[in-house]
Amino acid sequence: MATLNPVQFIQQVRAEVAKVVWPTRREVLLTTVMVFIMAALTATFFALVDLLIRFGLEGVLGMFG
C-alpha cells in the first residue's frame, strides 16, 4: 500500500466525508420511533411466549406431582 503524506490523507478524508449523505432530523426521528416500536413488540411477543411455556410446564409437571 502506498504511503501518503498527512496533507494528502486529510484531503482524501475530507473528500470522502463530503460524499456522506446525512439523514435529516425527520428521518432520524422516524427511525428512532420505529426501533422503539419494534423493541416493544418483540418484548411483548417474548413475554407471551414465556407465559405460555410457563403455564404449559406447570400443567405438565402438575400432572406428575
Order of helices and strands: HH
Computed over alpha carbons, the radius of gyration is: 26 Å
Instruction: Please give the number of β-strands.
Output: 0
- Low-confidence parts: none
Query: What is the count of helical runs?
Result: 2
Distance between the ends:
71 Å
Largest sheet: none
Q: Give the helix/strand class.
A: mainly alpha
Shape: elongated
Give the fraction of residues assigned to helices: over 70%
Beta fraction of the residues? under 5%
Mean pLDDT: 93
Summarize the entry for a quick read:
The chain has 65 residues and is mostly helical.
What would you note in describing this structure?
- The protein has 65 residues and is an all-alpha fold.
- It has a domain of 42 residues.
- It is built from 2 helices and no strands.
- The longest helix has 40 residues.
- The mean pLDDT is 93.
Give a quick set of tags describing it.
single chain, 65 residues, mainly alpha, 83% helix, 0% strand
Compile the SSE list and pairings:
Blueprint: H1 6-19, H2 25-64
